[in-house]
Amino acid sequence: MQVCVVGAGAIGALVSGYLSKAGVEVTLVGRDRDIAAIGAGGLVIGGVRGEMTVPVRVNSKLEEGAELVVLAVKTQDMAVTLSENAGALKESQVLTVQNGVRAGELLTEFVPPERMVSSIVMFGATYLEPGRVTHNFEGDWIIGRPDGSRDRGITEIGDTLGKAFNVHVTESIRGMKWLKLFLNMNNCLPALVGKSMQETFASLSMCRIAMRLWREALEVTGRAGIEPASLPDFPVARLRKLAGMPLDEASKIYGGIMTGLSKEPLYGSILQSIKRGRPSEIDYLNGEIVRLGDEVGEPAGLNKRVVEMVHEVEKNGEFLSMERVQDRLGGNDD
User: Fold this and answer.
1) Dihedral Cα 259, 265, 269, 274, nearest 10 deg
2) Is residue 333 scored above 60 in pLDDT?
3) Gyration radius from the chain CA atoms
4) What CATH number is given to the structural domain containing 98?
5) pTM (2 decimals)?
6) Which of 71, 245, 256, 258 satisfies CB 3.0 to 4.6 Å to 250 for a cystine?
């Protein structure tokens, strides 16, 4: 299967590198500086599978002929990317890897349902600089048709991606994406302070805020009648149990989980975008909870304040101290 990966950030670069190393025919499409670095010296990958430099075919634009297009740009960049490349997508299966729950909706304007594939990336990666990424931790790559159907095409895609990743094909991708949104939404806190996940969630007060964001989001999704579906290694019951514990107890457990995710410093997707001078996906994570809360009459005040604060950091380019974040969000509230 001929594969084209659009987006040379952390996930796009890692996917193209590992698939190329596994013998899959891959082309990586990205911005000029990324393409120049990878074209000249190969893609340098560090992390849990060791240090390696992988030759990757690169291009500055998407061309026709790819059987599978992995769309690895941020959600906020999807519409422009799809519009600019619509002509090259006429025959391709298009797989989205974006966080949040909006990618499928945005894709429907350009690709018919039978060629759409949603996915959830459970492995972690960090973009360091053009041509260099760190693979922080392993995890499943969960794929499925938005309508839950199974066909020969989705099986072939799973087989291809399975040459480099642990792939899980599901009929419950929509519900799983809601659970993944919960796992991603606390990326907002490291983004506010400009620190790694490990540094941020070593603070019990920051973990308290994370648990309160979850509790509020559970109230909103519950009012909306949305039922997240369990991920292969993370059942919904675990989220509900943790969020329902006394705040200090839950915060200590959460802090232990987050500080142990990776030996290398792990920077969440929101912070990585800010560090690169790009708009973040905050409106499609915590902002999704705010929008849903407004729709169902369950205001998500804490998540709304977080969204506003992240946009302030994006605009000003200045990170906040943990003390300032706690003052504005109430890190000690139960």
Assistant:
1) 120
2) no
3) 19
4) 3.40.50.720
5) 0.93
6) 245
